[in-house]
Amino acid sequence: MGAKTGFRGSFTALVTPFKNGCVDEAAFRGLVEWQIGEGTNGLVPVGTTGESPTLSHDEHKQVVEWCIDQARRRVPVIAGAGSNSTREAVDLAQHAERAGADAVLVVTPYYNKPTQEGLYQHFKAINDQIGIPIIIYNIPGRSVIDMSVDTMKRLYELENIAGVKDATANMVRVSQQRAELGPEFTQLSGEDATALGFMAHGGHGCISVTSNVAPRLCAEFQGACLRGDYAAALALQDKLMPLHQNLFIETNPSPAKYALSVLGKCADTVRLPMVTLSDKSKTAVREAMVHAGLIN
């Protein structure tokens, strides 16, 4: 059995605000403060939504430090520490641990397409170099490879492997993983639109893009699911569904950053190869924000 965590509810996959080509520390800290005030249960800096592929290693580490410092232990911080280079992932994970992160989120290596044995050895190497929980991030849509339930089960026997952020959008997986690894294995949805089903299948929470923009509603939604009040959860899902869809109308995080700019939280600036939203997409995002009651 791997590590256990008490991670439950709505975790925000934080965007990384930019200003004049640099990371915007003031906007980022403000975002963390607002998230906690709105009831978000945990924070995930420098994941995909945090544009980690285009941050330098120094910037990546700085954002993790700012997040931990600003959160002041009020909510857990799961620091993004993935890479398709095992050595690099180990370095980022060790830094996150030193900085005081509660756990690390490690994506399955993208682009170089390791085998299941390669996946096992990658995560084992990170496991052996740190002493905080590791959340496996399984997102075949972005990394091409899909970690099998068997590989996950093997990894869960290691000391620090604690759970999965599952972005397969496959409800069956949640039940399969629960059956094979047990209810203590932390299962966090990585896909906002299907989080309702995910939770009903035995999930523990969601690492959410939408909660960047609608933190209170997402936290309420997760709270309803965890209480088993699926009628209340469904009503919130209906409110949030256009946002879940339109925040992916163009590649994440451009729509989320645009929505945050509408709320006055940060600029909509992204780094190439990401680009800011087209006018048509901006209209769609605004309409979804109106539907959710975030703006008039």
Poorly predicted residue ranges:
none
**Shape category:** globular
The count of β-strands is 10
Percent of residues in beta strands: 5-15%
Distance between the termini: 49 Å
Query: How many helices does DSSP assign?
Result: 12
Mean pLDDT: 98
Largest sheet: 8 strands, parallel
Compute the gyration radius: what is it? Answer: 18 Å
Helix coverage percent of residues? 40-55%
Classify the secondary structure makeup into a structural class: alpha/beta
Strand order of the largest sheet: 4-1-10-9-8-7-6-5
H/E series, N to C? Answer: EEEHEHEHEHEHHEHEHEHHHH
Describe this protein's structure.
The chain is α/β, with parallel strands linked by helices and 296 residues long. It is 46% helix and 13% strand. It contains 12 helices and 10 strands. The protein has helices spanning 25-37, 57-71, 86-99, 116-127, 140-143, 149-156, 171-181, 195-200, 215-227, 230-246, 254-262, 279-291; strands at 9-13, 18-19, 22-23, 42-44, 78-80, 103-107, 134-138, 161-166, 186-189, 205-208. The longest helix is centred in the C-terminal third of the chain and has 17 residues, at 230-246. It is globular.
Task: List the topology elements.
Blueprint: E1 9-13, E2 18-19, E3 22-23, H1 25-37, E4 42-44, H2 57-71, E5 78-80, H3 86-99, E6 103-107, H4 116-127, E7 134-138, H5 140-143, H6 149-156, E8 161-166, H7 171-181, E9 186-189, H8 195-200, E10 205-208, H9 215-227, H10 230-246, H11 254-262, H12 279-291
Parallel strand pairs: 1-4, 1-10, 5-6, 6-7, 7-8, 8-9, 9-10
Antiparallel strand pairs: 2-3
